[in-house]
Design brief:
The chain is of the alpha/beta class. It is about 55% helix and about 10% strand. α1 crosses α2 and α5 crosses α6.
């Protein structure tokens, strides 16, 4: 049986690249990734993190860090519709997602049977509603 990958959300990448203490769990995970622990990234996460780059050098650093992980790419045939369903389901349970991108990231994690590493409370609540393993 193969080990499930961990999809690292934007919230951890932002803290990691800012050098915040909240990013330390990602530092530890990246070190374990060097020794075989599967970590993944996806287009919406990479897009959000790259959008915060403050220089060309930082953009390249972010790109190289995210692209070096396993790639859990968007599946347009299923993920966009799943994100809309997730958004709607969350609202029915009294949880308002901050945006559809968060739901798209959750949809990717569900489809790829990934754990979700996120610091975003609302995203955690939605992921747990769907039975995803959430890593804080």
């Amino acid at each position: 049986m193969t080990q499930s990958t961990t999809l690292v959300d934007t919230s951890y990448w932002v803290d990691f690249f800012r050098g915040n203490a909240q990013g330390l769990p990602l530092v530890e995970r990246l070190e374990r990734h060097k020794h075989g622990e599967p970590l993944s990234c996806s287009e919406p996460i990479q897009m959000e993190v790259l959008a915060g780059a403050r220089s060309a050098a930082q953009y390249n650093t972010i790109h190289n860090a995210t692209i070096s992980l396993h790639w859990s790419g968007v599946d347009p045939a299923s993920d966009f519709e799943a994100a809309a369903r997730i958004y709607s389901l969350a609202r029915k349970h009294g949880i308002t997602a901050r945006g559809l991108l968060d739901c798209l990231i959750i949809a990717i994690a569900v489809r790829t049977n990934s754990q979700l590493m996120t610091r975003d409370k609302t995203q955690k609540d939605i992921a747990q509603l769907l039975g995803l393993v959430v890593i804080d």
